[in-house]
Design a protein that fits this description.
The protein has 360 residues and is an alpha+beta fold. The protein has two domains: 229 residues, Rossmann fold; 116 residues, Nucleic acid-binding proteins (OB fold (Dihydrolipoamide Acetyltransferase, E2P), Beta Barrel). The protein is built from nine helices and 20 strands. A six-stranded mixed sheet has the order 6-7-8-3-9-10, with helices on both faces. A five-stranded antiparallel sheet has the order 13-12-11-14-20. Strand 9 and strand 10 form a beta hairpin. Helix 2 packs across helix 3 and helix 2 runs parallel beside helix 4. The protein binds adenosine-5'-triphosphate (ATP) and magnesium ion. Magnesium ion binds next to helix 1.
Length: 360
Amino acid sequence: MSAVEISNIRKSYGGVVALSDINISIPSGSFFTLLGPSGCGKTTLLRTIAGFHQQDNGSITVATQRIENIPAHKRDVGMVFQDYAVFPHISVSENIAFGLKQRKVPKNEIEKRVSAVLDMVQLKPYAARMPHELSGGQQQRVGLARALVINPKVLLMDEPLSNLDAKLRVDLRRELRGIQQSMNITTIYVTHDQEEALAMSDYVCVMYGGVIQQAAAPWEVYYSPANRFVASFVGANNFMKVVLTGEQASISATKVTLPQAAKNGSREGIVAAIRPERILVNPADDKSDTISLPVKIRQVSFTGREMAVAATLSSGEEIEAITQPTPDIIRLRPNDDAIFSFATQEVQLFEDGATGARLS
Ligand SMILES: Nc1ncnc2c1ncn2[C@@H]1O[C@H](COP(=O)(O)OP(=O)(O)OP(=O)(O)O)[C@@H](O)[C@H]1O
Ligand SMILES: [Mg+2]
């Protein structure tokens, strides 16, 4: 039995369909991330689970209990907001105690639970401070502590790290995941940052236009994207037009063999995708089962750990490789001729369209 079961949830605002027929099963104790571009419906879905929005249709079950028609404050879910949402006029410990007072928890029990949660989010020394005396990261810890102190069955977080600077975001990412794992609390997390989603989650659910595109483990979403949208939104990718004649195909006017294309017959309107880190630049030897395409270099940039080599195919399409920085690659200049090579089996095929279906 899943901790959270969302069935056929639909929500529109006037004429705008924000969620169309959402079905999700979230295993108990897992970290489940809703990932997608601005406006795809992430916040709407989270707020519908929390009970701040009323769905038009569908059901939500948390630990076998149907909750979609019970009021937000009786749902046993904790929510952490992007803008911290701490009360400015009361101290850190009073902020954290607030939800327990509302629930009429006895005073000595409140003290015990606030103290335990202060330890967990490392705010013990700040218990008596006012929110304006805290940094953004510390205020967000208060937000997290307030959500956790009520012992919710599900923790919901809507872009909790997006107001923090890059370094702190990465530190807090680890800390959040650590707390979630130590408490084994089922968590639904919203972000539009694909790296954050991959790094933190047990499951990543990619949304676009109010529709779930794919929900799977991070590596599955990355290595086996369900469609072209997922392939382009999660991680970097290169897309090239393909003309197929059975297994024989042409990419950028180069004849290639794509065994994975055989079942698609002869047709156009297909794109091939290759991840930048799978491309070799000017490889020394010609291996079998590889595709080698002539390119003109546009720009080479050194990022410390790797080189990004941007180039143009003879078709005019742009393509980028990410490789180890070797002296030969560092010496490349704009307009140099080069060869980009990759294993045939690394190529994935999609219908050429916004969310084009996977064909291989
Ligand atoms: N109160 C509202 N009234 C009308 N339309 C709304 C309302 N709230 C959201 N929408 C619309 O519903 C769609 C989904 O919005 P939502 O806030 O869920 O997106 P999101 O994925 O959280 O985006 P972001 O990453 O920008 O936070 C958008 O098209 C948005 O304009
Ligand atoms: Mg949002």
